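Q: What would this complex look like in 3D?
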Amino acid sequence: MKTKEGLWKLSPSGLYDFDDCKACFWIDNHHGKAPGIPFVLNMAMDSVLKSRYDIYRAKNELPPEIEKLGQEGVSLFKDIETLNKWRGHVSHLQIINEKAGYILSGKIDEVMVEKDGRLIPADFKSSGYAPKDDKKKYYISQLNAYALMFREHGHNISDRALLLHYFIKDAKNPSLDVEFISHIDPVKIDLEAFEKKMAKIVELLNSPYPGDDLECQSCVYYASR
Ligand SMILES: [Zn+2]
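A: Here is my prediction, written as structure tokens for the whole assembly.
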């Protein structure tokens, strides 16, 4: 939505929709998003993973499933108090760019640190099945958004961010002790490209409705009613 000052209020995860369907993204930002069903299981899994990472953080270790990052000198961000602020409320990482016409605010799941101290934004993605490669492009903006927010708050940032996938090993296994497999998916951080994208996003939102996208299931559904 637009603020009184004429700035578009955007969130890192909300940028997914710009890459998904520009028409739906335009409508959601002009008229508000239709209430959806919360992904309760994903939210619970995020909470489990945060607690899991916090246990290893306190021991100055990495969870075993991401141990190979340790060989590159990567560690978990140590300052839990600051991390909990970033996790807890969107205001702490918020940036306001009046010239470009947007406010970007959101919460982050996890932060790691390169050997030389640069921050690596990370996001947990839990799912019932292994991540599909073609989905990754939708998350590039989300992770670049976190990197931009960190940079604007004075932090040095890495040239990579991490998607930390956790998915069910065998959906046909009837045991309630559900076993998860993890997979680390690095995303390149390119803030010059990302800022150009933010300019395109604001330009789209400041323009008239772009018209239904006939390849989008939601657009076709609403158009047919
Ligand atoms: Zn659409």
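A: To summarize the key features: The two ends are 25 Å apart (CA to CA). The chain has one domain: 8-223.
Q: Very helpful, thank you.
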